[in-house]
Amino acid sequence: TLGDYSAAITGMLLALTLPPAFPLWMGAVSGFVAIGLGKALFGGLGFNVFNPALVGRAFAQAAFPAAVTDWSPVMRAGRFLELQPSSLSLPFMAPPESAVIDVVTGATPLATYKTGVATTGTFDLLFGFTPGAIGETSALLIMICGVYLLARRMLDWRIPVAILLSAALLSGALNLFDPARYPGALYMLFSGGLML
Fold it and tell me: Rounded distance, CA 76 to CA 124, Å?
């Protein structure tokens, strides 16, 4: 039913796995697949074989691979207040010849750490000053949303605590073993989709 908000949560989780400049029509198609295939086809609430939002994300990755791997440029003045032009692109339309580049593609913070090219500071990871999907870039915002879900009793606190604590302990131990090769616990917790 509409009152359980499960479709709204599926939509929000799907949006958090997509890049900020993802075209809205592609998001709508992916949302339709998430609800229609991921949720309704398997019997509805509580009978899902897979997470419906991740079914929508897998569909988006397969159907629109170039759009899923484009990120907004980092640290551009006013980027939090401006609308990305590519999000309003119509289906099957080519951009005009004088189009300004509004997205870039690049490695995630974990990939750059692995190659040793660059590392991102914990502050940047916590507050979202890195390229990536909406739900990968701001660990603080994800934690605030988690507290909201806890307050609404839509989340069992033991599951995320167990996952995050396990990842922190393992990454911290590996970091003590070889700090040049393995990032610390905070870097691992804040640098990707783990927090989401």
Answer: 14
C-alpha neighbours within 13 Å on the C-beta side of residue 48: 19
Residue showing tokens 């507290």? 147
How far is residue 28 CA from its own chain's centroid?
17
> Is residue 149 within 8 Å of residue 122, measured between CB atoms?
no
Please give the model's pTM, rounded to 2 decimal places: 0.68
Contact (Cβ atoms closer than 8 angstroms) between residue 126 and residue 109:
no
Contact predicate 56/10, CB 8 Å: yes
Give the CB-side neighbour count of residue 116, counting CA atoms within 13 A: 3
Query: What is the C-alpha separation between 114 and 116, in angstroms, rounded?
Result: 5
Crossing angle of the two packed helices 52-63 and 24-33, in degrees rounded to 10 = 130
**Two tokens, residue 111:** 């990939």
Q: What is d(CA 53, CA 35) in angstroms, rounded to the nearest whole number?
A: 8
Spacing of C-alpha 125 from chain mean position: 13
Render pLDDT for 73-104 as a digit per residue (tens, 0 to 9): 554 444 555 555 555 666 655 555 545 555 55
- CA angle (90 as vertex; 84, 94 as ends), nearest 5: 90
